[in-house]
């Protein structure tokens, strides 16, 4: 659609920003840009223009242009005056999370100043086949190869396993092992620093964090008790001895003896401990630690790109590992895999509806009305398995339909991206229980206690990239005595469950924000109760 390039000048005010973003969105639709990339680009441009609008007190003329460079569409914003890069000053305004979030999804705008003109360029990500489609295709191909496996000569299968499957597996696991610990470390620090300054955290953060952690562990405990009766376990002494004494050893071992060993050995709990401690200190020092904070944000972006590159092999790894698993053990593992999937789906929606009913009761609003309002965000999560793809819709629903104040909305979203792991921990528990049942892993009461303590804890450290769940699952398999070869089926189950986990998780986080705003008495209850009158239909 290059014949319809944009080159328009507009007045930099709120109305001009809205019109410009709408023009940009229409252009992207005509250019057949994927919906996910359109939403992200709208958010990016809206954030840039609103920041410029706040900076320039006097009315300013701005030019929006579109084009294509090196095979990628782009938008640029040009404005005259002194050199001003909003991405360097936005940290001081307390709204830095927007640009860090955009950077994490590959939408970090580029600024330059030439001949008295500022120019901000935003490159649109190229349309691509969703990673979930590749992964599901690999899963289907592995099932097909598993079915025809008995017809393949044993010598041929042995050669394929030795020279192809094992090679791919070693390369992938080595890449993940090299970068996973670094990514989790930087991701946790960036998430903590992204909550804003310490005063904002003291007001909103403590209550929000406590709510999320308590609900996560309460939900994990309830799901664990329910799932206990749905699986058959092999009772005995787990590897490593009595697990009650292991609980104390686990707590002590969380504190590393030096800062290098956790990364060398891939001890994820120690890595998370160091990251939380360092992140809290950086946040407490605020402006004094700005250089370190910025470095962590930039290093986190680099680490995520490295993991994303490594995860290009994810679908091939799933294909090779699952096929080898089916050839070695038959299709029995696949036949029984419906159990964790069913538990995950039912459990995710149960947790979501419980949270909706609790929020509805506390706020005096019909539960059906709340569900109706958050349905668009739920659908995006269920169809994309991406909370990032839904962020624009979530922000709009929160502010326009749920009555959540803007400052709380912006503050809480990065915190919830880390801490809202209720459905995730429930899904991982179902997967671990299923694999323990299938492999006859010896368990005792302490094994279940550790499951309740550790699984929610490590889900807080899932890297926000495709295949990031495999990092956490590899830690859990080792911790609970499950063979490492089960990582392929565990990862496949996690990928399928992620669609339901993400969709319901988005709604749970929105309900948490409603109750947070209610607690601080800054909830706009008029907006929240809008459309509660029968026959009234409000489009917001």
**Uncertain stretches:** 90-95, 532-540
Q: Order of strands across the widest beta sheet? A: 1-2-3-5-4
- Taken as a percent bin, the fraction of beta residues is 5-15%
Shape: globular
Number of domains: 2
What is the CATH architecture term of the largest domain?
Orthogonal Bundle
Offer a concise description of the structure.
Helices cover 68% and strands 7% of the residues.
Question: What would you note in describing this structure?
Answer:
- The structure is a single chain.
- This protein has two domains: 122 residues, 2-Layer Sandwich (Heat Shock Protein 90); 363 residues, Proton glutamate symport protein.
- The chain starts with 6 loop residues before the first strand and ends in an 11-residue tail after the last helix.
- A hairpin with a 2-residue loop joins β4 and β5.
- The radius of gyration is 25 Å and the shape is globular.
- The protein is built from 22 helices and seven strands.
- The C terminus is likely disordered.
- It is 68% helix and 7% strand.
- With 540 residues, the protein is an alpha+beta fold.
- The strands form two sheets. It has a five-stranded antiparallel beta sheet with strand order 1-2-3-5-4, with helices on one face. Strands 6-7 form a two-stranded parallel sheet.
């Amino acid at each position: 659609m290059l014949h319809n390039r944009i080159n328009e000048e507009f007045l930099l005010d709120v109305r001009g920003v809205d019109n410009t973003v709408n023009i940009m969105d229409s252009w992207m639709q005509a250019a057949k840009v994927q919906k996910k990339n359109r939403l992200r680009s709208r958010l990016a441009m809206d954030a840039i223009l609103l920041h410029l609008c706040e900076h320039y007190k006097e009315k300013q003329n701005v030019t929006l242009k579109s084009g294509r460079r090196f095979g990628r569409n782009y938008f640029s914003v040009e404005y005259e005056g002194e050199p001003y890069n909003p991405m360097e000053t936005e940290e001081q305004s307390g709204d830095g999370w927007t640009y860090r979030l955009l950077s994490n999804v590959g939408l970090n705008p580029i600024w330059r100043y030439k001949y008295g003109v500022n120019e901000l360029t935003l490159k649109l990500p190229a349309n691509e086949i969703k990673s979930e489609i590749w992964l599901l295709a690999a899963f289907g191909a592995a099932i097909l190869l598993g079915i025809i496996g008995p017809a393949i000569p044993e010598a041929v299968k042995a050669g394929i396993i030795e020279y192809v499957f094992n090679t791919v597996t070693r390369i992938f696991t080595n890449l993940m092992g090299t970068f996973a610990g670094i990514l989790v470390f930087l991701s946790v620090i960036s998430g903590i620093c992204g909550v804003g300054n310490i005063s904002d955290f003291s007001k909103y953060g403590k209550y929000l964090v406590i709510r999320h952690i308590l609900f996560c562990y309460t939900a994990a405990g309830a799901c664990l008790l329910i799932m206990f009766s749905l699986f058959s376990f092999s009772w005995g002494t787990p590897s490593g001895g009595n697990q009650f004494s292991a609980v104390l050893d686990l707590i002590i071992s969380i504190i590393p003896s030096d800062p290098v060993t956790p990364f060398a050995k891939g001890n994820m709990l120690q890595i998370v401990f160091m990251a939380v401690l360092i992140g809290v200190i950086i946040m407490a020092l605020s402006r004094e630690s700005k250089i370190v904070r910025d470095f962590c944000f930039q290093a986190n972006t680099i680490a995520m790109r490295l993991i994303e590159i490594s995860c290009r092999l994810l679908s091939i790894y799933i294909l090779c590992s699952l096929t080898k698993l089916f050839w070695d053990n038959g299709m029995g593992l696949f036949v029984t895999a419906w159990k964790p999937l069913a538990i995950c789906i039912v459990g995710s929606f149960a947790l979501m509806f419980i949270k909706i009913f609790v929020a509805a009761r506390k706020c005096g609003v019909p539960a059906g009305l709340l569900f109706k309002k958050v349905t668009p965000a739920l659908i995006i999560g269920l169809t994309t398995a991406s909370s990032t793809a839904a962020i624009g819709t979530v922000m709009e629903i929160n502010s326009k339909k749920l009555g959540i104040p803007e400052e709380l909305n912006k503050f809480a979203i990065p915190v919830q991206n880390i801490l809202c792991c209720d459905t995730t921990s429930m899904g991982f528990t179902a997967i671990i229980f299923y694999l323990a049942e299938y492999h006859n892993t010896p368990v005792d009461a302490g094994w279940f206690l550790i499951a309740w303590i550790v699984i929610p804890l490590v889900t807080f450290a899932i890297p926000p990239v495709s295949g990031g769940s495999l990092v956490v699952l590899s830690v859990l398999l080792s911790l609970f005595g499950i063979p490492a070869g089960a990582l392929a089926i565990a990862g496949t189950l996690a990928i399928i469950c992620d669609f339901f986990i993400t969709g319901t998780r988005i709604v749970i986080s929105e309900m948490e924000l409603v109750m947070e705003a209610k607690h601080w008495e800054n909830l706009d209850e008029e907006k929240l109760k809008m459309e509660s009158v029968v026959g009234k239909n409000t489009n917001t």
